[in-house]
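User: I'm putting together notes for a lab meeting next week and I want to include a structural view of one of the chains we've been expressing. I don't have a solved structure, so I'd like a prediction I can at least talk through. The sequence is below, exactly as it appears in our construct file.
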Amino acid sequence: MRFLFLFLDGVGLGGSDPAANPFAGLHLPTLQSLLGGRRMVLDAFSANGAAPGNVLHEGERATLLALDASLGVDGLPQSASGQATLLSGENIPAALGYHYGPKPNPAIVRLLSRGTLFSRLRAAGRQAALLNAYPPGYFEAIHSGRRMYSAIPLAVNQAGIPLKTHTDLQRGEALAADFTARGWHDHLGLRDTPLLEPVEAGRRLAQLACRLDFAFFEYWLSDYAGHHQDLQAAREILTTLDQVLEGLLEAWDDDQGLVLLTSDHGNLEDLSTRRHTANPVPALLIGSPALRRAFAAGLHDLTGVAPAILRLLGVPAGPAAGQGGPGEFFPHKRN
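Assistant: Thanks for the context. Below is the predicted structure for the 335-residue chain, given as structure tokens.
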């Protein structure tokens, strides 16, 4: 059994105005084929209901659900607390009393140290990895203290799993954050990095994931484009993502594993604002009908994702080490 978690930062289920929502006005053939020809906007699935946990679409290869990212806490969802919830299965905003981001504060660091997908899978003897490669400058900034880990690489580091490097990318054992490594060429000046076409990157994503029990890939460019309210960049990013999905679907065996695409909060789907949104986030499941049904059972919000993954992989979720009540965590200033 293989599980690929394709994390799309800042992607919610939005409205049908193409001036605000790039999903509404852009033809994405691979994604739309998975959704029965419909675009990934709430209006397209209104007959099925848009409440969190509702199955918006169930097709031959894919199921789409709407998940609650607000988790009963006032304010707009934020990256650090949302990602920590996805990784741990705990309602991190409720434990804190607020949403927090973009980078983890000390309370979130402590909560993550109690157990995440990466640490629990490694403790169970399963092979897990983050497939993103990080450039040399990233590690230099982390080691110097000029940069903080975001929640995902922090959880990987806490689990004792090494982050992928420039060398891993050159060897074809990792992927750049933009899938193609064009950014490594154009912005980082690392001209020796092999370039990939998006479809080829999708095939590589499948190949790398099939070597592991659990593979995770973080696509953060979606949140970046949302904060910049850049419709053209959003369209280019989604076009690339759709082509990556094309290659992934070509190489993925639905009977051998499940692919999950989901997010921590909304953003890209509403470019009328620079801020995050309170929209539900999509949970797109790709795999056999039996695997999709098993995973989706009882899934309503971000807290259900990690337990569902562990359940599917046959790993007990169990209480995290040192579990305590929300009152032991000190509130920190919100971003």
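A couple of points you could mention at the meeting. Strands lie at 2-8, 55-58, 62-67, 128-130, 214-219, 257-262, 281-286. The chain has one domain: 2-72+112-317.

User: Perfect, that's what I needed.
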